[in-house]
Write a structure and sequence with these properties.
It is a single chain. By secondary structure, the chain is α/β, with parallel strands linked by helices. The chain is 22% helix and 26% strand. The chain has seven helices and 15 strands. Strand 7 and strand 8 form a beta hairpin. The two termini are 32 Å apart.
């Protein structure tokens, strides 16, 4: 499995896979958002995330210009003023009263189930030559704007959602789009879940991330990386880090690979289970 986390911050060329932005009711990393919005094909706010999005846009005088594509949740957190503002501007405000799922989960399932139409509606008709069947099979990745520096239970919940499976198609005649890759963008990091087996994480800059040259464009990543066995004990082998390990058992209460350093353009991680990887964002993308 190849991972290209830096591609979403490349302003020179579009990412190889379309992506949507999901805004949680957490502080927004404004520097990251300002770059991501240029390439995102859809933005959805999870209930109170609309308040955060509105505040960010209001501070820039863009609250009536830069709009989310949809707001979804049980709507117990969005303020009446923000809700009216967006409804008046014809932003879809979707009510889902289900109390067995979080607003986060509702938004993930919405993006997944509507991926073909989101991708189709965001494509340039002149350059889009893919068939409806191809669009149905195309993956829509999801970049989640959240924060891990506040309440611990909310931080853990965000990580929990990265591990959650997506529903299977209800009918063979109506195949579901491929499950999206989820990336959590917090104040200083980008976090996602590696699959079992060999993972190749493409990290442009490699060893130069330790001392990025000031004369070149800002790198999207810094050198720090952590690999965490959140789902349970795991055995990992790495290549391309300052402190590589081989057949190394890692678990909470035992050994953890934190504060390691990227030293190659491609970092390889083999794992016997799903593990979490967190990459430090470049200085220009951090938000404090």
């Amino acid at each position: 499995m190849d991972w290209y986390p830096a591609q979403f911050f490349d302003t020179a060329s579009p990412p190889s896979t379309p992506f949507a932005i999901l805004v949680l009711n957490q502080p927004i990393n404004q520097n990251a958002y300002n770059v991501l919005k240029k390439r995102a094909c859809f933005t959805i706010c999870a209930d109170g995330g609309a308040n955060r999005f509105y505040s960010l846009m209001h501070a820039q005088g863009k609250e009536s210009i830069e709009l989310p594509n949809a707001i979804l949740g049980d709507l117990d957190s969005i303020s009446p003023q923000v809700r009216k503002h967006y409804e008046d501007l014809r932003v879809p405000v979707l009510y889902d009263p289900d109390q067995e799922t979080t607003d986060f989960t509702k938004c993930l399932h919405y993006l997944h189930s509507h991926a073909p139409e989101i991708i189709s509606s965001s494509s340039d008709p002149a350059s889009n030559t893919s068939s409806p069947q191809t669009q149905q099979q195309q993956q829509l990745n999801i970049l989640i704007l959240g924060g891990l520096g506040g309440r611990v239970d909310q931080a853990v919940s965000q990580i929990h959602h990265l591990y959650m499976p997506f529903p299977s198609p209800t009918s063979p005649s109506q195949p579901s789009p491929p499950p999206p890759f989820l990336y959590l963008i917090s104040e200083e990091s980008m976090t996602f879940i590696l699959h079992q087996g060999l993972n190749r994480i493409h990290t442009p800059g490699g060893s130069s991330l330790a001392n990025p040259p000031t004369t070149q464009p800002q790198q999207p990543l810094s050198e720090n990386i952590g690999i965490l066995p959140v789902a349970g004990p795991a055995t990992i082998t790495t290549h391309g880090l300052e402190w590589d390990v081989a057949e190394w058992k890692t678990e909470f209460g035992g050994r953890l690979s934190t504060s390691n350093h990227i030293r190659a353009e491609v970092v390889e991680v083999w794992a016997d289970g799903r593990v979490l990887v967190t990459l430090e964002l470049g200085a220009g993308l951090k938000w404090r």
